[in-house]
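Technical note accompanying the year-one report. For the benefit of new consortium partners, we illustrate the data format agreed upon in the data management plan: each record pairs a sequence with a structure-token string. No post-processing was applied to the example shown here.
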Amino acid sequence: MEKFRISAVRYANTYPFIYGLSESGFDRKAIIETDHPAECAAKLISGRSDLGLIPVAAIPLLKESFITSDYCIGADGKVRTVQLMSNSPFDIVEKVYLDYRSVTSVNLVKVLAKKFWQKDLEWINASTDFDFKTVKGNEAVVLIGDQCFELENHYLNRIDLAEEWKKFTGLPFVFACWVANRRLPAGFTDEFNRALSLGVQNIGKVAIRFGENGPITGTELRDYLTLNIDYNLDNRKREAMSLFLEYLAELRKENLKA
């Protein structure tokens, strides 16, 4: 029987999915790797994986895309792990460094700047060796993932991008969802979805399993997974995904004209 290749995000927000896949035994039926979000997308686009927890902004880059689960990485308000950080007041920020590990978040900040803040900024793609502690005056950085917990106190000013999206649209936001690049067997996807559900329904056990190591530990991890991350891909989140992709398409058209 074919073993499908799955690429999952390696951040703490994915712990419930990893827990469910391992506790259910599903991890023995597939080849599961963990990557940063941009690499999850790259693997699915290139065919190196069959199913990935990929950034929503990467979905239009696939020749074919099939949302394959009822679960996602979403937030209905503050998410904590997608932030715009600076040591300068944001009204004087002119230059923004963009986290190379992200696809959706760096596009979200561009959408917010254009549509909500109505602010022109210089965007700079950070490299893999970029030191996220070194931004200067009049500069800011978009940072994602567990490192936000490590660095949020390093900066005087922080804007939570999921919270800003909620202020702008009244909707939750979806950062990543499970997408396949071909239609997978129904039996496989049903079992996969049940495995994810096992983790999402047992956040307390997830926090105990993963809460002793890493930048987010103990009750802080449990609170993050329950208060900041919203895993259910419901109709409001699907509406938010459609709206975000509509705004993103507009920005891409404008960039082509520029």
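Partners are asked to follow this layout when depositing records. The two ends are 50 Å apart (CA to CA).
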